[in-house]
Amino acid sequence: MYAWVNMVNGKFYIGSGDCLYSRLSDYYQNGYLLSRTSLYICRALTKYGMSNFRLLILEYTNSDNVISCEQKWIDSLNPAYNLNPMAGSSKGYIHTAESIDKMREVALGRKHTEEVKQAMSASRKGGSKPLFR
């Protein structure tokens, strides 16, 4: 179990990982943070910068107890950056056909400005990506 503590506003996030090193290393990758803007902690890390956060290791546990241990810490500390009060993992989750249809409907209804379309196009071109150099 780990906690990211924002030293500016005192808010924090409780997280867990079966392989803790692998899980924590994600946060030090800009690509990870920028691709997960739906996660409150990723937006906060990007906004305030890593230098304004402290990483605390709260507890080590085995794979079988990860979720229950995370829930214990969430219940006891009520972290502001954990928007879902229930510990868990969406790893391996498969959306229902109904959910996929709803997401498709929402996506099809989006209208982008020309400026946004050009920015999206430019970001997908190979020039700035190391793989294409």
What would you note in describing this structure?
The protein has 133 residues and is mostly helical. The protein has two domains: 2-77, GIY-YIG endonuclease (3-Layer(aba) Sandwich); 97-132, no CATH class. It contains six helices and three strands. The protein has a three-stranded antiparallel sheet with strand order 2-1-3. Strand 1 and strand 2 form a beta hairpin. The chain is globular. The termini are far apart. The mean pLDDT is 86.
Number of helices in the DSSP assignment: 6
Would you tell me the structural class of the helices and strands? Answer: mainly alpha
Which ranges are low-confidence, i.e. pLDDT below 50, for 5 or more consecutive residues? none
Looking at CATH, the homologous superfamily of the largest domain is GIY-YIG endonuclease
C-alpha geometry:
globular
Report strand order across the widest sheet: 2-1-3
- Taken together, the total number of domains comes to 2
CATH architecture of the largest domain: 3-Layer(aba) Sandwich
Radius of gyration over all CA atoms, rounded: 18 Å
**Total beta strands:** 3
The fold-level CATH name of the largest domain is GIY-YIG endonuclease
In whole angstroms, the N-to-C terminal distance is 40 Å
Order of helix and strand elements from N to C terminus: EEHHHEHHH
CATH class of the largest domain: Alpha Beta
Main beta sheet: strand number and arrangement?
3 strands, antiparallel
